Amino acid sequence: MKTIHCYGTPYELGSAHGVGAKEMVQRSVSFYKKMFAHTCKLEWPVVRTIAEDWKREIKQKWPKYYSEIQGIADGSQLPLIDIVILNIRTEIAFGMFNDGCTSLYWKTNRYSFLAQNWDWMEEQKQNLLVLDIVSDTGPRIKMITEAGIIGKIGLNELGVGVCLNAIKAPGCDSSRLPVHLGLRAVLESSSADAAARQLEEVGLGASAHILIADQENAFGVEATARTAECIQTDGQGQIFHANHLLLPHRGVVDANWLVDSPMRQRRIEQLALEYGASTGKEGPTMADIMDMLDDHKGFPYSICRYEEGPLGMDATLFSIVMELRSKGATVRLGRPCQVEETINLDF
Fold it and tell me: Taking each helix axis from N to C terminus, what angle separates 80-87 and 22-35, rounded to the nearest 10 degrees?
């Protein structure tokens, strides 16, 4: 997996991203052109028109992110609006297509694990990259993202990490923070508590579950375009989440877009009980967490997902296990059962 090192101002960060991953960013745009047309019946000129409202809001409310997006556009020699579209891909179609995944937080006496499988379409795997960001104003960040997108899954040098679960609930709101920019905001935060409070106060532009953790705490911010609710750790220091709403949201109807989501939710909770019982007071190791992400029980409705079969088009493209006390992470490209490459993210 390619690593892009980004330094300096927001524009310089974006420029380094755009220049260093020029062909990958261009492929990301091509991929989403096809996806919007196929899945949402939206041709690219229409998508560009929809994105204009979001562009204005981002420029006005989050100018540093706008500047970074401009840098990516200039570096990759693509129109600015196309990079805006990549960064609001969750919002564009009102949540009509999103990536699936299973995420978890587990704090023990020795470790603070944050982990997930990221499930999406195989074609986009070639456009995944590592961003190593050293900005003028915030903590150093290391994340796995899709080329052209400024926020996704990873951790910072302070031991704050973030994971994402897509949720399909109707509606979007261009006055709120786009989901992927919200992930970036978390990675710029000094603590899980500060990050969660910020997202709850600002609100997200579309539905999602963002799992935020640091060495001591974790919060699951479950959001729709109108609501935000916070999941606290249970008595075992755990949070588990798949791709449906776990909390009540007034006036919101969950579309239950992935039929396997409740099954994966139950399975990850069952595995936690099994691993908790087998490991005793010491709790699980990183290898144990990796094994949980490699679970195939109930296939094809399993945590480790395959592209073929009745579930549709997505498969597990990478898994990540962060250990936030040591401020490090292990990323495995490909399905956990068929690892193509292993990358370590350490500070």
Answer: 70
